[in-house]
């Protein structure tokens, strides 16, 4: 009889422990999860008023547009040339571009320090040398290239060179988009700079196992053309 009482007592005690444990687990599961505090993002210092932007837009129209139109129309009087006033990418393209260049920079173990927006102009022909179509010959445009810091905190645009062993190497570019050579001075704005600087560096052909990956974003939608209604 005593043994039976002991067994019953142990069973009751064990049951209480199990239920107590389960109760604690349920309380833990039901405890509310604290949401992270959402803070307002402070506007960058570079934000300007719409009025300032309009002033700058009008100034470009007064001081640049007429000169460009006259130059192009004098070359081909039979064709009316319209100067592009702005360009745009859809928002998702910009997000994908940012994700892509950050991914490639990480592979090359470098950190992007800035984005450069280069003014450019499409040549007066139907295609580039690689066969890519030029949709609007002679039209002004721009392209974007990321930059990293080199020696003495000097910034350089760059692209990625993937070697045969899979290693990614950043290749630095001078301000006029020529490959930087160790010890060379940047020839931007000098008489030595080529009149038509191309993105790819003027170096001997790379071995077949070398793969160059450009980080330049172009092909923006420039206006006009096509024309947009007010």
Percent of residues in helices comes to: 25-40%
- Identify the overall geometry: globular
Ends apart, CA distance between termini: 99 Å
- Helix and strand string, N-terminal first? HHEHEEEEEE
**Strand content range:** 15-25%
The number of helical runs is 3
Could you tell me the radius of gyration in angstroms? 31 Å
Give a short account of the largest sheet. Answer: 5 strands, antiparallel
Low-confidence stretches: 183-204
**What is the typical, i.e. mean, pLDDT?**
81
The oligomeric status of these chains comes to: single chain
Derived from helix and strand composition plus strand pairing, the structural class reads alpha+beta
| Number of DSSP E strands | 7
Task: Summarize the SSE layout with pairings.
Blueprint: H1 2-30, H2 50-75, E1 86-88, H3 91-107, E2 114-121, E3 140-149, E4 155-162, E5 168-173, E6 211-213, E7 221-223
Antiparallel strand pairs: 1-7, 2-3, 3-4, 4-5, 4-6
Detailed description of the structure:
The chain has helices spanning 2-30, 50-75, 91-107; strands spanning 86-88, 114-121, 140-149, 155-162, 168-173, 211-213, 221-223. With 230 residues, the chain is an alpha+beta fold. Strands 2, 3, 4, 5 and 6 form a 5-stranded antiparallel beta sheet that branches. The protein has a two-stranded antiparallel ribbon with strand order 1-7.
Keywords:
230 residues; alpha+beta; 5-stranded antiparallel β-sheet; two-stranded antiparallel sheet; 31% helix; globular
